[in-house]
Amino acid sequence: MFKKILIANRGEIALRIIRTCKEMGIKTVAVYSTADRDSLHVKFADEAVCIGNPPSSKSYLNIPALISVAEITNADAIHPGYGFLSENAKFARICTEHGIKFIGPTAEQIVMMGDKATARKTMTEHGVPVTPGTQGLLDTMEQGKAEAKRIGYPVMLKATAGGGGKGMRIIRNEDEFEHLWNAARQEAAASFANDAVYLEKYIEEPHHIEIQIAGDQYGNVCHLSERDCSIQRRHQKLLEETPSPFMTEELRHKMGEAACKAARAIKYEGVGTVEFLVDAHRNFYFMEMNTRIQVEHGITEEVTNLDLIKEQIRIAAGAKISTRNYYPQAHAIECRINAEDPFNGFRPCPGKITGLHLPGGNGIRVDTHIYTGYQIPSYYDSMIIKLVAVAQTREEAIAKMKRALFELVVEGVKTTAPFHLQLMSDPRFCAGEYTTKFMEDFEIKSPEE
Prior knowledge:
Blueprint: E1 4-7, H1 11-24, E2 27-33, H2 40-44, E3 47-52, H3 63-72, E4 77-79, H4 89-97, E5 101-102, H5 107-114, H6 116-125, H7 141-151, E6 155-159, E7 169-171, H8 177-192, E8 197-201, E9 207-215, E10 221-233, E11 236-242, H9 249-265, E12 270-278, E13 284-290, H10 297-304, H11 308-316, E14 331-338, E15 340-341, E16 347-348, E17 351-352, E18 355-357, E19 364-368, E20 375-376, E21 383-391, H12 394-407, E22 409-411, H13 417-423, H14 427-430
Helix pairs in contact: 4-5, 12-13
């Protein structure tokens, strides 16, 4: 087992990793930018080293600085968390070259799944259903138009290096192809320094369902059932739950097997997720694989009684995993509470927290790095709290979440908690009748209404 782990991340996920490391008797090293010097992950780690100025490029994405800190502190492993360098093959490779264990898959596995076009090809070869689309990348716009005609409109143009909705455009007819082709490629180049794109058939009003998987260094693979991530705004997840209200036992079995097949196809090592789009007839199609821990991993932990961070660390240290699959023993819902104004287009609201009361009680889990007096930086993601409610039934979980949202008080900045509270009372959500299009006609009522 590792003696000391450097956490190449910040905020809530860094704190989450530190807690598991302490339980496992492993020392931790926190890194931080000057904007995060007062963050809780800095205070709770055994050691903490400043690695640069606030912009991510000068701190959390600074590979030479991270490797230097690991060597100076004698860390024998690095946990990348999620975001930042968590799916960066170059970083994983450099860690290996310096004799530092990257807690995650190999660089080769990251490359195979990180390039979306390559991932589609790999899945097709191994019998995992994929949406109809191009076999590889598109070289010209004319080629793209021809492929769109073959596939049939509407189509989705996607950046091969994409994520977070960047470099994606829905094209409904040939007249708008050129404009959206140019826009998608420009956005992809600006976001990922890679403007390569491919086409998929656009599935109207799908469900976004992901399967949590784990694989070890000996070829053992298992899945931990599904999470429904369909409540989204601009391809950004707002809420997740498990089990999915749309799922059937037959579909759960089929998707779980497909996810394990995907993991075996690349001899996957570590914890990850295989993401699918599911149409109204419960046909499912591979979308992408995330080769890291997910933001929403906590709800799977709550319904399976497993610590997924611990599993990541054990697998990286060479432990074998069981091949038995895990299924939900309860119902869990997660609300992502962001420092944003839901009544003003979800505009980010960084600032100082002047007052804070976090909810508690039976069935409530709060993952956060904030406290009274904490200054939320403007440089990073706006998520400040992951609020989880767990109960034996979905109805009870919704009731617990509603109660927890009433208890939550964050003063000094605006948050998305009022939106989530309205969501908990929405008839369609309460009935489990939602798709990725839910937010398009969800009306957020102002406090005055």
